[in-house]
Write a structure and sequence with these properties.
Blueprint (H helix, E strand, L loop, with lengths): L1 H8 L5 H48 L4 H6 L2 H40 L2 H15 L8 H18 L7 H42 L8 E3 L7 E4 L2 E4 L5 E10 L8 E9 L3 E5 L6 H9 L6 E6 L4 E4 L10 H6 L6 H10 L3 H6 L17 H15 L3 E5 L7 H12 L4 H5 L2 E5 L11 E5 L5 E5 L1 H9 L38 H4 L7 H7 L4 H31 L4 H47 L2 H6 L2 H41 L5 H46 L1 H7 L2 H50 L6 H44 L22 E11 L5 E12 L4 E5 L6 H8 L6 E6 L2 E2 L5 H6 L1 E4 L10 H5 L13 H10 L3 H6 L14 H19 L3 E5 L7 H14 L4 E5 L11 E6 L2 E5 L4 H4 L5
Parallel strand pairs: 1-7, 6-10, 6-11, 8-9, 9-10, 15-20, 15-21, 18-19, 19-20
Antiparallel strand pairs: 2-3, 4-5, 4-7, 11-12, 13-14, 13-16, 16-17, 21-22
Keywords: ATP-binding, Cell membrane, Membrane, Nucleotide-binding, Transmembrane, Transmembrane helix, Transport
Subcellular location: Cell membrane
GO cellular component, one term: plasma membrane
């Protein structure tokens, strides 16, 4: 640069010097272009490899952790936010060490011009390190360092030998070379630190202690020798599938979960386990499954290949058939037999697409009983030697439960014919007589064994003396794994695949900018844009003033004062612009956009939620929200600032030589073409990345929820392969997006290369076309132009790509069907409903499937319920009972009229309607947080009537939970630390309902199988509590047990959406038994 300015200032140079300068510019700028391209290619390959490695490592770790660790860790956050943050941190890591090298070279170049300036730079570094925490102060080093350098040279090191024009601009360029990586270093450090913190969290997760299977499996080699008195018998030859010796679980707790258990379970037997709520029935099954460690004793099993059906069914978002078959080879005869045994044949006949019906996320398209039978069907289809069932009949009506029990466990049932060993927990005492072994678990964790000797002898006599012959359809043991077919699961299309947005993804949408502007104060946004434009001009004013100074009077010190003053003004304007954006514009916009998305999800219809994949919704709150609240605002700020900087630089460079402006206009056209074609590709790749990431997240979440089933069936390897396939699909657009970014960098560097070579060639060949100060300013801004243009297009591209997330959110908010409340309805009185009378008049309701198919939920139902009356609702599972309650809550659209206290509920805003009704469901919502927050999560909406801690404790004590919770930390304890069983969770939700009723003085209570997981005594206590607590309320109670409806006055029986029978008031005398 110094040589070029010197050549121009001395009216040209020889042809050899001119050719050398042009060749040097080609070598320098061409080398920069190629080296940067190679560097970015290797960097992006490394990032992609690290991403894939971490995703697979996290998934593999999930499969090895116990359920407690999985519940306590935010593994989904690690998969989304932390891996994304670490990707950025890895990119900034390379930029950080490269900036250090550039900084050293820049300081050396500066030393050659100013000598003793090195010490001053070290001092300046400390000062900038203290001020860099603010965006405005970021420009302090870049603005004040040239002032300090020129001051040091003018008044100190070069007093006797003043710098020439060429040396002044060369020194200024050296300052820029040194300051740019220094500023980048400080700007990138927070991002690098954030990436490092993400990596620390990932590492902490990967170092968690893994679950250790403490069961001993001898398989066909025979189980360990057991001693019984003076007789030594082999457990394998004695016909036992499971043997436990002095097993204790949870001895480190204040009260052991299970204590000193010793038992043997015969091959082909049916063992039923019962006990009070929280006694440890589910833990007993998890110990046998290997999901819960033991503190002492030994467990021996004939096979670790065990099918398991949990109390809360694990349902994947795929078809009914794929949920049943899973990863096993499809055998039609076995499939039909299982469907019949689980009484699913009638349900499939009513579904519009039969067994090809999508179940929805967590089975939301199915009733509670259908989900339980679907989970049971998958367990049976596995045909493992041992199956574990956790109260799988609790959500079924009595008639269906009896039918399923007979077909599965009866004398001619599937398990008897297949000679499988089954262990089932239950609260149905009437089925205990059908069991071969009955285990009763006390509240202290002790197990008492009762054998049905007649059945046990029958089982032994049916077995060969050496060992049991394998059943015809028995699955191989874990030592000889069953063949696992490839993943058959078919995912339903997400709404993004059918949106009009996807057909326009290759084109930008200027309306998106308006959508973003509307999320904040428009005038505030315009004020910031004005400040950003002024800041860009002020950033270049010291350089422009330097040219005037050098051309007018080089020895005038007042020009130096003006130069320093302009640098100070630049800092102030930059501070004001950055502060206005970061403290005013950005927070308002981010909060508003997040609120719009949240409101749309919360107000979306039940049908939409049922048919939308959970991974898709989660992706919006992770990927899309991260884009529009973090990346997009910063990209917008950088784009606006760099846009104004580029405009100013173009003007300065064009003034460097007379023949340069046409070239600059041509290059601007090239830049526009580059960004135009680049954006068309990058937008589509960004959409593809988001869409291919959602199935990966869905697979991850479904694995966490069903990890016990996956490990029991030995599906880990197949699920790993499926994740690898989905990860591979997600990696393609991820890496291709980096590739086109690398192409963009190469194109921009080539543009700078052409611009630099053209400017230097024109200036050296035609020196009369410019001056030394003009070419010096042009070359100086050419260095900054390359950086500014690169940052401008990169940030613009990042902004356009981020707008893809905004476009998805805008389309989601626009196209998502939401619940609409009447706008002209009369105000709802504060005491409504005062009495609680309910009237249904010819109410019909339908469910609509994802492909437009329709099936009847309610069919012309009419009835009336007097205020304070207690009504029971019975009927076959899937018959429409829950739909009656959903329609009363206006959660599904219906025809006809539903009135409460004479007022049509369609004229009542849904928020008010639902807040005035106490609802108690089978599977309540357990929130992350403390016991206090879970007992009464309504404090924000009803802060004035929030119960005191004494009221919460009293409610928990009334349901029998407080003693247990007090041992685990009381109200301030985290809900996960309480280790609540399914039945204890139902008691917690009952306490929540009682508190809700007391706080809001509700007059209507809806109960949907709220005591299905309780033992008879606990259920009786819960029913008595509800009768007392809700004595003055109108109650509608759904129950599949007769005991659950003992306190009601009438029973409505629902079948296929029709009100079949209205039973008389005297329930006990008219109970027919088929219910």
């Amino acid at each position: 640069m110094q040589r070029v300015i010197y050549a121009v200032g001395n009216a040209g140079a020889s042809d050899g010097v001119t050719d050398g300068l042009i060749a040097a510019s080609i070598f320098i700028f061409g080398g920069l272009m190629l080296s940067r391209s190679i560097f970015e290619r290797l960097e992006y390959q490394a990032i992609t490899c690290v991403r894939g490695t971490l995703v697979m490592a996290l998934y593999a770790k999930v499969q090895k952790l116990g359920m407690d660790e999985l519940e306590e860790t935010a593994s989904i956050t690690l998969m989304t936010t932390d891996i994304t943050g670490m990707q950025d941190g890895l990119a900034y890591l390379h930029s950080t060490w490269s900036s250090i090298i550039e900084l050293g070279l820049g300081i050396y170049a500066l030393y050659t011009f100013v000598e003793k300036r090195v010490d001053e730079l070290a001092t300046s570094l400390k000062e900038r390190n203290c001020r860099v925490m603010n965006y405005g102060v970021y420009g302090f080093g870049a603005a004040m360092t040239p002032v300090a350098v020129l001051a040091g040279a003018r008044f100190w090191t070069r007093v006797s030998n003043p710098m020439t024009i060429s040396e002044t601009f060369a020194a200024y360029a050296a300052v820029f070379i040194a300051a740019l990586p220094l500023n980048n270093l400080f700007v990138l450090l927070p991002f690098f630190a954030d990436g490092y913190s993400c990596l620390v969290r990932v590492q902490k997760f990967l170092l968690l202690p893994e679950m250790r299977d403490q069961r001993d499996c001898q398989g066909s080699r025979g189980m360990a020798v057991e001693k019984s008195d003076d007789t030594t018998v082999s457990a394998q030859t004695s016909g036992h599938d499971i043997e436990m010796n002095n097993v204790t679980v949870g001895s480190k707790a204040s009260c052991p979960i299970l204590q000193d258990i010793s038992l043997r379970i015969l091959k082909g037997s049916l063992t039923m386990v019962h006990g009070p709520v929280g006694s440890g029935k589910s833990y007993f099954l998890k110990v046998l499954l290997g999901e819960l460690g033991i503190d002492s004793g030994t467990i021996q099993v004939a096979s670790k290949h065990i099918a398991y059906a949990s109390q809360s069914p694990w349902i994947q978002n795929t078809t009914v058939k794929d949920n049943v078959v899973g990863l096993h080879p499809f055998v039609e005869s076995v499939y039909n037999e299982v469907i019949f045994a689980c009484a699913l044949d009638e349900d499939l006949a009513e579904l519009p697409e039969g067994d090809q019906t999508m179940t929805g996320s967590n089975g939301c398209n199915l009733s509670g009983g259908q989900k339980q039978r679907l989970g049971l069907a998958r367990t049976l289809f596995a045909r493992t030697p041992i199956i574990l069932l956790d109260d799988v009949l609790s959500a079924l009506d009595a008639k269906t439960a009896s039918l399923v029990f007979l077909r599965v466990f009866g004398p001619g049932g599937l398990l008897r014919r297949w000679n499988c060993t089954a262990i089932m927990t239950t609260n149905y005492f009437e089925y205990l007589n059908e069991a071969d072994i009955v285990l009763e678990i006390s509240g202290q964790g002790h197990v008492r064994t009762t054998k049905n000797h007649h059945r046990a002898d029958r089982i032994r006599s049916a077995m060969p003396s050496s060992s049991r012959e394998p059943a015809q359809t028995e699955a191989p043991t874990a030592e000889t794994p069953r063949e696992i077919v490839s993943f058959p699961f078919k995912r339903g299309k997400t709404e993004s695949e059918t949106n009009e947005l996807d057909r326009k993804r290759s084109h930008g949408d200027l309306k998106l900018y308006g959508y973003f502007f509307n999320s904040t104060n428009v005038w505030l946004f315009v004020l910031w844009l004005s400040a950003a434009s002024v800041a860009a001009v002020m950033e270049r004013m010291p350089q422009i003033f330097l040219r005037i100074w050098m051309k007018t009077d080089l020895d005038n010190d007042w020009y130096f004062a003006g130069f320093a003053a302009l640098s100070i003004v630049e800092i102030l304007v930059t501070c004001a612009s950055g502060s206005l954006y970061l403290k005013q514009v950005l927070p308002r916009s981010s909060a508003e956009l997040h609120w719009r998305l949240l409101q749309t999800v919360m107000r979306s219809t039940l049908s939409f939620i049922s048919h939308t994949d959970a991974g898709s919704l989660l992706n919006r709150f992770s990927q899309d929200i991260s884009l529009i609240t973090q990346r997009m605002p910063l990209a917008l700020m950088t784009t606006a600032s760099m846009f104004f900087n580029v405009l100013v630089d173009i003007g300065i460079i064009s003034s460097g030589a007379k023949y340069t402006p046409p070239v600059m206009v041509f290059l601007l056209g090239i830049l526009y073409a580059i960004q135009h074609y680049y954006l068309r590709t990058s937008r589509q790749l960004r959409y593809l990345e988001l869409e291919t990431t959602a199935p990966m997240i869905t697979h991850f979440t479904e694995t966490i929820s069903g990890i016990s089933h996956i490990r029991g069936l030995g599906w880990q390897r197949a699920f790993n392969a499926e994740l690898a396939l989905r990860l591979n699909n997600a990696q393609r657009p991820f890496y291709y997006l980096y590739c086109v970014q690398q192409w963009l960098t190469l194109a921009l560097d080539f543009t700078t290369f052409v611009c630099a070579v053209t400017l230097i060639s024109v200036a050296t060949v035609f020196p009369e076309s410019t001056s030394d100060s003009a070419i010096g300013l042009a070359l100086l801004n050419l260095i900054s132009f390359s950086t500014a243009a690169s940052w401008f297009l990169r940030s613009w591209v990042a902004l356009e790509i981020s707008l893809g997330g905004l476009a998805r959110i805008k389309a989601f908010c626009k196209h998502t069907p939401v619940e609409e409340d009447p706008e002209d309805a009369e105000p709802v009185p504060e005491d409504w409903p005062a009495s609680g009378r309910i009237d249904y008049e010819r109410v019909s309701a339908n469910y609509t499937g994802p492909h437009g198919e329709v099936w009847q939920a309610l069919d012309d139902a009419s009835f009336s319920i007097d205020d304070g009356q207690k009504i029971g609702i019975s009927g076959r599972t899937g018959g429409g009972k829950t739909s009656m309650l959903l329609s009363l809550l206006h959660m599904m659209e219906y025809r006809g009229k539903i009135s409460i206290d004479g007022r049509d509920i369609k004229t009542v805003p849904r928020r008010i309607l639902r807040s005035r009704i106490t609802t108690l469901t089978q599977d309540g919502v357990e929130l992350k947080g403390t016991i206090r927050a879970n007992a009464f999560p309504y404090s924000i909406a009803a802060a004035a009537v929030a119960p005191a801690d004494e009221d919460i404790v009293a409610a928990l004590d009334r349901v029998g939970l407080w003693a247990h919770l007090q041992r685990h930390g009381g109200l301030d304890a985290d809900i996960t630390d309480a280790r609540l069983s399914h039945g204890q969770r139902q008691l917690l939700f009952l306490a929540r309902a009682v508190l809700h009723h007391q706080a809001l003085r509700t007059r209507i209570v809806l109960v949907d199988e709220a005591t299905s997981a309780l033992d008879p005594q606990a259920e009786a206590d819960a029913q008595a509590l509800m009768a007392e607590a809700f004595a003055d309320c109108t109650m509608l109670t759904i129950s599949h047990r007769r005991e659950g409806l003992d306190f009601v006055e009438r029973v409505l029986e629902v079948d296929a959406g029709q009100l079949v029978e209205l039973r008389p008031e005297n329930l006990t005398e008219t109970w027919s038994g088929d219910f």
